[in-house]
Design a protein that fits this description.
613 residues, alpha/beta, 4-stranded antiparallel beta sheet, disordered C terminus
Length: 613
């Protein structure tokens, strides 16, 4: 049960973390999306309109001839698909597209549309090949489901060109289909006029009438080579020869001449009848091959009036979603790679030391470094002062009353705000009317004297390295009840000084005089000063600047503190932007100021009395 509850809490923390992450960066995310959409809009509205024309063709699958049609099984579905897929590939073939370009005279329109670049030194066939590649890329052919209708579509920035292309391809396809069916009866086509290649597809049967012309019919190979006709033609020749001889002897009305003429007419009529039979059979064969119902145009393309693209709304949507996804991916990735300590949850999860409180960052622009160092003292009703009160209460509960008089403030690395934290923490103790001492133990990089407006001519290093008295290094400040011992002159071996008996004597003397002693010490990583000082004090506070130090360094600092036996009271998260990290904080701050507003307005100066905050 406890494990399940812990898992639920962990999930809740993660969700809250990512929600806060989104909230912190929503302005940057919104700006990114707006910029991306604006650029996409400029790009999209500069794109030319695209028009699409479409032609519908109905293709009837040819039935294979069989004397038992009614017993034949219907075409299996997979063969039906194979047939229509084949027709689609035929429509996309280079040969057919080339015919469409030539017959439809599309080279010039394609050049004007910028699809091809015509050059005088390039042969026409090469230009046609280039145009074929252009058409193949832009031509889309689909079959309407459960029908035998093919739809040809072509997109272009020129609406008229789109229409001409699909119509030309459709006409070329039907023309090629007819030419293939006229291929078998060659003996008929060779007697058509020279322009017979330009058969009008819509009226192919009209061309068959030419076959019935007597002059064409007489020369057909099937007629010339027919045995009966050849026999009849031989007899007709003999009858004409006999008639000629009789006309030399007898007049036209002589019975023998009349009989010969009647015989010749009978033979010629027989030849004509047999010729007509042969031609009829050929026409029947040709008609069965044409099958004009096999392929026909259901709907010709017209000039499209409305553009179908570009889909500008889609471009804008993709830009918005893409930029948002990229931005979120970036901040989530950076957050994942960022292993710094950011919140109380990180301290509890990775540092595993008691959490003493957050110290918010001071956002007011304060030029006077003394005013900034003692911000809590000069602004007792601020949210920063309230956070230090929470820290003070947490410290009071960390040990028995009077057991934690001397505290050392340290951090893992430099520049985490130890000195500023020490001055403000000691300001919170001043409000209880207690005497407090601030000691600068950073003998390598002292700063406390700058904050307290004191000199650094003599201080802790002088006391530890000589026989100077405690009062000789002690300095008063302009803040009542606050005394300071600066670092003093820089020392080449501060660690040895802190390990000496003089340091122990110094701490005993300080405890005897003051209720609270705060020692500002150097960072832990790379230096042993804080560790030596910590062993002589009542406890140590580890200061961590939010979003500044990696977890590994914090773990190393913690390990060094624990290995030396120092009593670590807990961790302070410093310079926290609470409004950024926790949205609920702004409501706390607003409520706090509203509750204390009158008191703050009536405050003429800093509160230095014995009233506790």
């Amino acid at each position: 049960m406890d494990a399940d509850r812990f898992q639920y809490v962990e999930e809740e923390i993660e969700i809250r973390h990512y929600l806060n992450l989104l909230r912190r960066h929503y302005k940057a995310a919104l700006s990114t999306v707006i910029i991306s959409v604006s650029l996409a809009a400029i790009y999209a509205f500069k794109l030319p309109n695209i028009y699409q024309a479409e032609t519908q063709i109905m293709v009837q699958k040819e039935a294979e001839p069989t004397p038992y049609t009614e017993l034949k099984d219907p075409t299996p579905p997979y063969l039906e698909n194979v047939y229509f897929n084949t027709q689609i590939e035929v429509l996309k073939s280079s040969d057919l597209l080339g015919k469409a370009i030539r017959d439809g005279q599309l080279l010039e329109p394609l050049a004007l549309a910028g699809k091809i670049k015509p050059r005088k030194d390039v042969p026409a066939e090469k230009q046609v090949e280039a145009a074929v590649n252009v058409l193949r890329l832009g031509l889309a052919i689909d079959k309407i489901r459960d029908t035998r209708i093919l739809i040809l579509r072509y997109k272009s920035t020129n609406a008229i060109l789109a229409k001409e292309v699909v119509n030309a391809v459709a006409r070329a396809y039907i023309r090629q289909n007819v030419e293939e069916k006229l291929y078998i009866p060659k003996e008929l086509l060779q007697f058509f006029p020279e322009d017979a290649e330009k058969i009008q597809v819509e009226t192919p049967y009209g061309q068959l009438q030419k076959v019935s012309q007597e002059d064409i019919a007489k020369t057909l190979p099937s007629v010339v080579n027919d045995p009966l006709i050849r026999q009849l033609q031989s007899k007709a020749a003999e009858a004409e020869s006999q008639l000629g001889k009789l006309r030399e002897t007898f007049k036209e009305k002589h019975p023998k001449v009349v009989e010969a003429k009647s015989t010749l007419k009978f033979i010629k009529d027989r030849i004509k009848t047999e010729t007509e039979n042969i031609v009829r059979n050929l026409k029947t064969t040709l008609a069965s091959q044409l099958q004009v119902s096999n392929v026909r145009i259901l709907k010709q393309a017209e000039v499209p009036q409305m553009p179908v693209g570009p889909n500008r709304l889609r471009i804008l949507l993709i830009a918005a979603l893409g930029s948002a996804a990229a931005f979120l991916g970036l901040i989530f990735t950076l957050d994942f790679l960022d292993d710094s300590i950011k919140s109380q949850e990180d301290i509890e999860k990775f540092v595993q030391l008691p959490f003493l409180g957050n110290v918010p960052i001071v956002k007011e622009k304060i030029k006077d470094i003394h005013q900034k160092a003692f911000f809590v003292h000069y602004n007792p009703l601020s949210d920063v002062a309230e956070s230090f009160r929470f820290v003070k209460i947490a410290l009071n509960f960390s040990g028995a009353p009077g057991a934690l008089k001397c505290l050392v403030i340290t951090s893992a690395v430099p520049s985490e705000g130890k000195s500023m934290f020490s001055t403000n923490l000691i300001s919170s103790f001043l409000r209880d009317g207690e005497r407090v001492l601030l000691v600068d133990a950073d003998l390598r990089h002292p700063t406390v004297h700058l904050f307290t407006n004191t000199d650094n001519l003599k201080g802790l290093s002088n006391f530890l390295s000589s026989n100077m008295e405690f009062d000789e290094v002690l300095q008063k400040t302009n803040i009542p009840q606050l005394d300071v011992i600066p670092a003093g002159l820089l020392s080449p071996n501060p660690t040895e000084l802190f390990a000496s008996y003089r340091m122990e004597a110094f701490i005993r003397e300080a405890k005897a005089r003051y209720e609270h002693i705060i020692i500002d010490s150097p960072p832990i990583i790379g230096l042993a000063d804080s560790l030596v000082i910590g062993t002589k004090c009542d406890g140590a506070i580890l200061l961590i600047q939010a979003r500044h130090v990696s977890r590994n360094l914090i773990k190393k600092a913690k390990q060094r503190l624990l290995e030396t036996g120092i009593k670590v009271l807990g961790v302070i998260l410093n310079k926290v932007d609470l409004e950024r990290e926790d949205p609920a904080y702004r409501y706390f701050a607003q409520g706090y100021y509203h509750y204390y507003g009158k008191k703050k307005d009536s405050a003429a100066g800093p509160e230095t009395g014995s009233t506790s905050g």
